[in-house]
Amino acid sequence: MAHNWDDLRLFLAVAREQSLSGAGKQLRLDPATLGRRVARLEKALEVSLFVKSPQGYALTEAGARLMERAEAAEQAMRLATAGVAAPSDRLTGQIRIGAPDGSANFLLPQVCARIGAEHPGLDIQIVALPRVFNLSRREADMAIAVSAPDTGRLMVQKITDYHLHLAAADTYLAQHDPIETVADLKAHRIVGYIPDMIFDRELDYLADLGLARVNLASNSVSVQGHIIQQGGGVGVVHDFALPFLPGVRRVLAEEVHLRRAFYLIRHADDRRNARLRQFAELLSGALRSEVARLEAKA
To answer: In this structure, which topology does domain 5-80 adopt according to CATH?
Structure first.
């Protein structure tokens, strides 16, 4: 673990700016001094946090793990001091978030409501669409995605992992044959995505289970959840959505356990936009906390 918050603060600045010079300007520190501090932190942790190249500082896997924890600590500190923050720390203006409808329906409403309460001068817009957003055309200021894009001038930050299981309504399970193995699923009605409208390979859950036919389908994960709740069949449900679907429970929980991740995508040109960066930090930390809270209740 890092020795103190100051170490984590410097680490976060370098990770976000991806350079010593950029982080040094933000922190008002000499890049050489900052480089020594980073090296000292790596020595203390006995891991390499960055891959250094002429293009800048890129996070290693260990660095990415530390960034998740450091951002969570940063968010906790921000929330602890929110009541005494100076008015100048308040965000204002409009920020638009693009998001797939799972996060838009089950996570962003409560997360953005809390952020909005802390920043009353801020207008938050949530665009819920089951597709990949084009930030180059400025469809949104930032977007949540289920896979990390590898093209375009984008900043990509992993927010958190999340989990999914097969699920069905108690009413459905009471009226149909028991489901004891994956092979038993072939005798049941399946709820899922419309196959030719799956916009990301990470969402093609049923193909991995060998289930080619989807009896009741929607391009919306929220609609799928409500179909399942109404006794329509068996389908894959986010663990964080289960608390919103009373009467629905996991099926084959030990045999079928899926893990995916949310990523926050921003345009590279916004790297030095302090306002968007502050909002992105608030959003990421709050989403991590909300996923953990809801999954613990599932």
So the answer is: Arc Repressor Mutant, subunit A (1.10.10)
